[in-house]
């Protein structure tokens, strides 16, 4: 792995150059338009979307808008209902991409539909709870430890790792970096903030 590629890896795992604003939106929210790629985020089982604030900040600091849905308030619905809710919001966003709202979608022509690839990357020493903020409020957080795995170390390294991998993937398929960041991570996973094993993928 060339030194320049390694330096590229460290940039996606670090906070990006953009300032971040977090807004709670219950209905249509108007604001000056911003032409950015949009990530629709689904929280984990029995979680709240606000538990992932630091993870959102990392992705957004690299120039992506993150829309974090709250899929339910108490009792989790079926997986089918979760997908239906997500579809409804995605269609709503797409229908309003030309309006002056806080979320504007950017079509990317040939890169709009990613090729059928498979990526399998595991942070060996961590669990889902380690992507969350440190000590989120609320009873759902207290109960979530019974449902999901957690590691022993600090959470920030995993948040930076997951955020960096997602940023690299989005850049590869929504922007024109030709997958430089993603290829660097796949080629030298030892430079990630946490241990990654296995790191597997299928070529197109």
UniProtKB/TrEMBL annotation:
Q: Which Pfam families match?
A: Chlorophyllase
Superkingdom, according to UniProt? Eukaryota
Alphabetical list of InterPro entries matching this protein: Chlorophyllase-like
The name under which this protein is listed is Uncharacterized protein
Q: Which organism was this protein described from?
A: Nelumbo nucifera
């Amino acid at each position: 792995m060339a030194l320049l590629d390694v330096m590229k890896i460290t940039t996606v795992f670090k906070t990006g150059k953009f300032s971040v604003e977090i807004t709670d939106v219950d209905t249509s929210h108007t604001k000056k338009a911003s032409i950015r790629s949009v990530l629709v985020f689904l929280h984990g089982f029995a979680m709240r979307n606000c538990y992932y604030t630091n993870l959102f900040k990392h992705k957004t600091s690299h120039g992506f808008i993150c829309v974090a849905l709250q899929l339910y308030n108490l009792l989790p619905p079926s997986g089918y209902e979760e997908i239906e809710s997500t579809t409804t919001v995605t269609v709503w966003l797409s229908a309003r991409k030309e309006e002056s709202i806080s979320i504007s979608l950017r079509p990317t022509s040939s890169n709009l539909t990613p090729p059928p690839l498979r990526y399998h990357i595991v942070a060996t020493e961590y669990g889902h709870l380690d992507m969350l903020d440190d000590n989120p409020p609320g009873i759902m957080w207290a109960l979530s430890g019974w449902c999901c795995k957690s590691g022993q170390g600090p959470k920030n390294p995993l948040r930076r790792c997951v955020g960096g991998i997602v940023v690299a993937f989005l850049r590869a398929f929504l922007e024109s970096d030709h997958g430089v960041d993603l290829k660097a991570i796949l080629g030298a996973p030892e430079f990630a903030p946490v241990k990654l094993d296995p790191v597997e993928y299928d070529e197109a």
